[in-house]
Write a structure and sequence with these properties.
Strand content: under 5%
CATH topology of one domain: Rna Polymerase Sigma Factor, Chain: A
Largest sheet: none
Distance between the termini: 71 Å
Shape: elongated
Helix content: 55-70%
Radius of gyration: 25 Å
Number of strands: 0
Number of helices: 19
Length: 429
C-alpha cells in the first residue's frame, strides 16, 4: 500500500496536504518547467489522481513527494503531446538554468522549498499591484479564483482576468523565477511584504459586508508571513510584519460580542486575547528592532505590542506610542499614519490637541473616502461636547463605512449625540 500509515479520511488528507504543500509543489514545478500555467494544471491533475489513488491504496507517508512525482509525469505527458509547447519551455528552461543554480541535493530534494522564488515572481514590480496580490493568493495561499474574487469584492471574471494578465506578463516579459541577489533584495523585499500585508488588513478590518473581520484572510496572511520568515529568517522587516500581524490578530476573539457587534479596544475583555500569540509577536518585535535602524513594519509592531501589554486604554504608554508614530511618520509619510498619530496625541494630550491635528489633515485626498477620519473627528468632537459638529461627522462616516458592525456602532454614537442637548457636559474628557 505504497508504504502508507494509518488510515485517515482521504478527502481531508488531500485537503490538508494541498493546503500545506501546494505552494512548494507549484514552486518546484515552475522552477523545473518555467511555466506557471503548466505547473498549475499538472498540480491540479496530481491532486485529482490522489483522490482516485489514495482511497484504494492509502495516503502515502510522503504525500508531498507523491504529488510531485505524479505532477512531473503529467507534465512530461503533456509536453510529449505538444512539441511546440515543449520547444518554448525548453528555451525558458535554458534561461532559468543559466540564471538560477540547481538546488543542492539533500533530505528535502524530493520536494524542494522554492516558494521564495515564487514569492518574488508573484510580487515582481513589473506586475500591477492588484495583479501581484491576486497572483500571490492564487499561487501561494492556494485560494481558488472565486475565493480571491470574494476576498476583494470583485466579480470572479474580473479576478480571473487579473490572474491571466499577470501570468501573461510573467511569460512575455520573461520575468525570472529566482530570488534577487543580495544587492537587489533590499529594493525588492518591500514589494513582497506589501503583497502580504493588504491581505491581512482586509481580514482584520473587512472593507464591506456583514462581518467586521475576515478571519480566513487574516490567517492566510499570517501563514504566508510565517513561510517568508522561515525562508528569510535574518530579514528584520519580515520578522516585523509577522510580529505586527500576530499582535493585532491576538485580539480577534474580543473585537466583537456574541452577536457580532463591534467592541472597542477599551471595552474588550483582555482575558480573551491570545497570550501565546502576543508572546510570539513580542519576541519577534525584539528581532525586528535589533541590529540597525527600524523599518516601518517593526515600528508598527512595537506600537501593537504597547497596546497588547497595557492593562487598559488608560494604562497604555501613550507618550511612547506617539514617539513611535513620529518615527513611523518619518519612515513612511502618509496621511493615514498622521491620522493614527493624531488619535494617539489625543489620548496623551487631550481631545483638543488631537482635533487640531485632524483638522490639519482635512485637505488630504486620501482621507476623503476613508471612514476612520470622520469617525475619529466625531469621537473627539463628542468628547469635547460639540455635539452638533460631532453628529455631522458621524453622518459623514456613515456614508463611507462598509461593514455592518461598524455602521451599527456609528449609528449608536450618532443617536447619542443627537439626543444630547447643547448644555450637556462632554461624555468623556
Amino acid at each position: 500500500m505504497d508504504g502508507q500509515g494509518a488510515a485517515v479520511p482521504v478527502d481531508a488528507a488531500v485537503e490538508s496536504v494541498f493546503r500545506e504543500e501546494r505552494g512548494r509543489l507549484l514552486a518546484a514545478l515552475v522552477h523545473r518547467y518555467g511555466d506557471l500555467d503548466l505547473a498549475e494544471e499538472v498540480t491540479s491533475e496530481a491532486v485529482e489522481a490522489a483522490l482516485v489513488h489514495w482511497p484504494v491504496h492509502g495516503v502515502p507517508t510522503r504525500p508531498g513527494a507523491w504529488l510531485l512525482t505524479t505532477a512531473r509525469r503529467k507534465a512530461v505527458d503533456r509536453l510529449r503531446r505538444d512539441q511546440t509547447y515543449a520547444a518554448r519551455l525548453a528555451v525558458l528552461q535554458v534561461e532559468l538554468e543559466r540564471s538560477e543554480p540547481a538546488p543542492p541535493a539533500g533530505a528535502d530534494s524530493d520536494l524542494p522549498d522554492e516558494r521564495l522564488q515564487l514569492f518574488f515572481t508573484c510580487a515582481h514590480p513589473a506586475l500591477a499591484p492588484d495583479d501581484r496580490v491576486a497572483l500571490t493568493l492564487r499561487c501561494l495561499a492556494g485560494l481558488t479564483t472565486p475565493e480571491v474574487a470574494r476576498a476583494f469584492l470583485v466579480p470572479t471574471a474580473t479576478m480571473a482576468q487579473r490572474i491571466v494578465r499577470a501570468k501573461k506578463k510573467i511569460r512575455e516579459a520573461r520575468i525570472p523565477f529566482r530570488v534577487p541577489g543580495a544587492d537587489e533584495l533590499p529594493g525588492r523585499l518591500p514589494g513582497v511584504l506589501q503583497v502580504v500585508y493588504p491581505v491581512f488588513t482586509e481580514g482584520y478590518a473587512a472593507s464591506s459586508g456583514p462581518d467586521l473581520q475576515r478571519l480566513d484572510l487574516a490567517e492566510e496572511a499570517i501563514r504566508l508571513a510565517r513561510i517568508l520568515h522561515r525562508l528569510l529568517p535574518t530579514e528584520r522587516e519580515v520578522a516585523g510584519l509577522l510580529a505586527l500581524m500576530l499582535l493585532v490578530h491576538a485580539r480577534r476573539d474580543a473585537r466583537t460580542d456574541p452577536a457580532g457587534e463591534l467592541v472597542l479596544l477599551d471595552d474588550q475583555d483582555r482575558g480573551r486575547w491570545d497570550r501565546a500569540m502576543i508572546d510570539e509577536g513580542s519576541a519577534l518585535v525584539l528581532v525586528a528592532l535589533t541590529g540597525g535602524p527600524p523599518g516601518p513594519y517593526g515600528v508598527q509592531a512595537a506600537i501593537a505590542a504597547l497596546h497588547d501589554e497595557a492593562t487598559g486604554l488608560a494604562g497604555t504608554d501613550w507618550p511612547q506610542v506617539v514617539a513611535l508614530y513620529d518615527v513611523l511618520l518619518a519612515l513612511t509619510p502618509s496621511p493615514v499614519v498622521a491620522l493614527n498619530r493624531a488619535v494617539a496625541v489625543a489620548m496623551r494630550d487631550g481631545p483638543q490637541a488631537g482635533l487640531a491635528l485632524l483638522d490639519d489633515l482635512a485637505g488630504e485626498p486620501r482621507l476623503r473616502g476613508h471612514h476612520p477620519y470622520p469617525a475619529a473627528r466625531a469621537d473627539l468632537l463628542r468628547r469635547l461636547g460639540r455635539f452638533p459638529e460631532a453628529a455631522a461627522a458621524y453622518r459623514q462616516a456613515l456614508d463611507l463605512v462598509g461593514t455592518a458592525p461598524e455602521r451599527a456602532h456609528l449609528r449608536r454614537r450618532l443617536d447619542e449625540v443627537e439626543a444630547a442637548g447643547p448644555d450637556d457636559r462632554p461624555l468623556s474628557t
